[in-house]
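Write out the 3D structure for:
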Amino acid sequence: IVLAGNAVRIPGREPIHGLFSSQCLRTPDAVAIEEGDRVLTYMELERESDALAGFRTEVLGMRPGAVVARLMPACAFQIACLLACWKAGASAVFARTSAGRNPRLPL
């Protein structure tokens, strides 16, 4: 195992976001996530995470080695955010809430 920045790489293995991108090329129209009435294909999720990675890198200054914290309920957007962080070389920490707010954290 080789540590490269904040990423753990196993020789001969693709990182998870690389595997996801490869899956998008193989089955772009297959369903990746279903959330209520919303359905995202692999390609739609890939495009959403690419856009987020670009926005976070250009506007928010996210860079390799950064740790991104998000407080949000479990949802499809959370998966897109996680992929975006990995694509930008960052790590992600999510605090899941059921109502979108955590009463123990001051807002």
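Residues 42-58 form the longest helix (17 residues).
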